[in-house]
Amino acid sequence: MTVRRAALLGFAVLLAACGGTAISTEPVAPHGEAVEVSSLPVDLRSSDPADRRIGRLVYRGGVSVVPRDDRFGGLSAFRVSPDGARFVAVEDLGLWTTGALDYDAAGNLAGLSDVRIARILGADGAPLEGKRLGDSEGLAFTDPHGLGGDAFVSFERDHRVLRFAFAADGTAAKGVPFAMPEAIGALRENEGLEVLVTLADGRLLAISEYGPRDDDQDSTGWVVDPATGASLSFTVKRNLPHAMTGAALLPDGRVLTVERRFDVLTGPGAQLRIFDPADFQDGATVDGELVATLFAGVTVDNMEGIAVRRDAEGRTLVYLVSDDNFQRPLQRTLVMMFELTE
Fold it and tell me: Which of 161, 146, 239, 150 is closest to 200 using CA atoms?
């Protein structure tokens, strides 16, 4: 979702005042057009780089991605292969973005490489042009813990979910409409389905950024069975002023969300919460367990994407990605990795 113009102006003022080795693997999808990027390392806390803990998260490296192509940016959803070698993302202007994740000798995230972009295609094979048709916000795969099977992409403005035969055709797949509850049509134009994730039982979870009436209203969530079309709806309690922007499935089947905030005076922030899918019952109001809050003194931007994987040592690794809204240098594309602790 695009940050409002007034907020961007305030963010500019705020910023002015604030004075490895790649893991080799086969591509998960046919490549698009190459985009050259640079990866600049970032600390969790620039004032104290040795302090790597925040809440239940331990920082495991991150970068600010600087592209040499104006088409790169606006990353709204992010998914990572089980081995951590590859990623697939969607961006605000109807593009797939794929690439490799690079790590240092200690296994900390060190950069992005082999970055490529491709237009998201509609059912007729034509690119989804413009914000009205191409404002992609959520991404899920049939495989709840990887990049396998079909891909599902949610869009706001023209509220809908498209299904892509990604395993067969990669980024050249055509988007076929996926049946969602009619109630998503009542969501406001630029405040739609930001969260999209496949649950352990194969059902698709979708959550709106805000409620259908105003920015202080709790979010609406739906769970849809792709096999039968059966669905249920519930309400997600928001921790104001945070708004839902992404989610990923943890190895134990619970859902980890990222929720962003922005204020002209205090700048950007984010929080992470854990939800139990057993609570997603028709008509219920659900709340999550707070994991961490990223705010003052911490590297953070417009955090929208999140991915999770378990490494060979059994550690749960969490990736957070920011949407720069194509407003460089006011905003950055950050890709950060954390270890989730008990």
Answer: 146
